[in-house]
Automatic annotation (TrEMBL):
It is found in: Cell membrane; Membrane. Essential subunit of the Sec protein translocation channel SecYEG. Clamps together the 2 halves of SecY. May contact the channel plug during translocation. The lineage of its organism: Bacteria, Pseudomonadati, Campylobacterota, Epsilonproteobacteria, Campylobacterales. Belongs to the SecE/SEC61-gamma family. The gene is secE. Coiled coil: none annotated. One of its GO terms (cellular component) is plasma membrane. The keyword Ribosomal protein does not apply. InterPro entries: SecE_bac, SecE_sf, Translocase_SecE/Sec61-g. HAMAP family: SecE (MF_00422). It comes from Campylobacter novaezeelandiae. Component of the Sec protein translocase complex. Heterotrimer consisting of SecY, SecE and SecG subunits. The heterotrimers can form oligomers, although 1 heterotrimer is thought to be able to translocate proteins. Interacts with the ribosome. Interacts with SecDF, and other proteins may be involved. Interacts with SecA. Pfam families: SecE (PF00584). This is Protein translocase subunit SecE. Keywords: Cell membrane, Membrane, Protein transport, Translocation, Transmembrane, Transmembrane helix, Transport.
Length: 60
């Protein structure tokens, strides 16, 4: 039982050290991730389209 109490006390102490992000920081991170994923998706779509076109020309 002593170990359990010590565990909870240490957990509480560690949680006080945590710095949670502000709402604005979370929003900015979300927007950044969304933009990067969109750009990478568009790039991969373009590369796929180009490669498909080239392969189609070679096969014909």
């Amino acid at each position: 039982m002593e170990k359990l109490i010590t565990y909870f006390k240490l957990s509480k102490t560690e949680l006080r050290k945590v710095i949670f992000p502000l709402k604005e920081q979370v929003r900015n991170a979300y927007i950044t991730v969304f933009v990067v994923v969109t750009v990478v998706s568009l790039f991969l779509t373009l590369v796929d389209w180009i490669m498909s076109s080239v392969i189609s020309l070679i096969i014909k």
